[in-house]
Design brief:
This protein has a domain at 72-106. The protein is mainly α and 140 residues long. Helix 3 (73-88) crosses helix 4 (92-103). It has 5 helices and no strands. It has helices at residues 5-9, 57-70, 73-88, 92-103, 115-139. The radius of gyration is 31 Å and the shape is flat.
Length: 140
């Protein structure tokens, strides 16, 4: 006779096969091409030299050097003057770029819904600093 619906829905107990990956054999983690960079658990081995780094960094550095060598102070002054003129004419993109370059990008504002929580965090941090200062002065 067939199994009941309750038996079919029964959840596997701890340690039982949950039906996932049935028939699959667990393999050892890759050792990243056998280069010794990883241990048998697939973790980075001690003394791992790290990855190759950014493959484009050398090219980008070369291009930046080229720009620095090519752009004269006079060229840069002309570009900045053009940006200032566009900003004066009301170009919002130019205004934003000019202000960001002069004063830095504005800090992100706090969400009003989380303002009270942030104020409590600051107060707790200030209290801790004050307590530590008192402790240090008392130890002198």
């Amino acid at each position: 006779m067939g199994t009941s619906v309750a038996e079919e829905r029964k959840r596997p107990r701890k340690g039982e096969n949950h039906g996932y990956n049935q028939g699959m054999v667990a393999e050892q983690p890759s050792t990243n091409g056998g280069n010794g960079a990883r241990n048998t658990k697939g973790q980075f081995a001690k003394g791992n030299p790290g990855g190759p780094g950014n493959p484009h960094a050398k090219q980008v550095a070369k291009l930046r050097s080229l720009i620095v060598e090519t752009v004269t102070e006079k060229d840069l002054r002309a570009v900045v003057a053009a940006l200032v003129e566009r900003a004066k004419a009301g170009d919002m993109v130019a205004i934003r770029e000019l202000l960001n370059r002069l004063t830095g990008k504005p800090a992100t504002s706090l969400d009003p819904e989380h303002l009270e929580l942030e104020q409590r965090r600051v107060k707790v941090a200030e209290d801790r600093v004050e307590q530590e200062e008192e402790r240090l002065w008392d130890s002198i």
